[in-house]
Please model this.
Amino acid sequence: MWDEQDGLRWRIVAPFGVEIDADLAQPLAPAAAGRLCALFAGHGLVLARRQRLDRARHEALLTLLGPIIAHREGEAGFITSHGDAGGAGSELAFHADAAYTETPFAALSLHAVDVVDGASSTRFVDAAAALDRLAPEWQALLARHAAEMLPGALDNLGARLCEDPRHRHAPAIRRLPAIRRHPASGRACLAVSAMHTAGLAGLDDGASHEALAAVFATLYAPAHIHEHVWHGGDLLIWDNIRLQHARGSLVGKGRRILQRVIVGEHAHATPHIRAA
Model:
């Protein structure tokens, strides 16, 4: 059911997020821009279909949410299923970008500039809502034990990092809170993820694996996954602190080029560890 407020037409989608009906190639009126920001803050994910945004307009839109991080030299600012980059077409386990650092990106946006309609998807989970659903004993355990975080294993970005205990001894490991407070809302969010969490500090491999398996069973419960199937012109904007995202393998899915814009205060390279 569609609603309209401040000149912006929108509706709630299940299991979370909102879809808006607007031509974002044109600057939004101040009231509509404010409503878009409020919807983003309240729901964490915004979808707009049938958009045609060049990079300048895409970036201008995202400045409503914060400063834009310029892509690094040599990067085209796209996520593509083709090319020589590690993981270009591979499955990606659930994660939040740069969550293995103290300053993850604030928001991410992808715009489908060249995709095979209906051939591929991106999946999302709400790490704040999942924490609310998590059993109290696991909440208490995560509050006591830091997460051992790594960029992810380049050899298998679709696997759960914690399932190979060798990664717990990697020199690049960082100990970060397993529960993170959202810098804008103050809401507590799960900060552990399949791609980036090697273990929980202070627990042996068996206890760490048991705890993370229980947490992931709640966080990645199928009933709470939002799956967006890509069509040309789709635009997604999501909260990178509150949400985690994943995708299946792109092998056999055809051409898939998504224009990416990142909102945040700090740029991060995306190194990956290699299995020993």
About this structure: The longest helix spans residues 205-219.
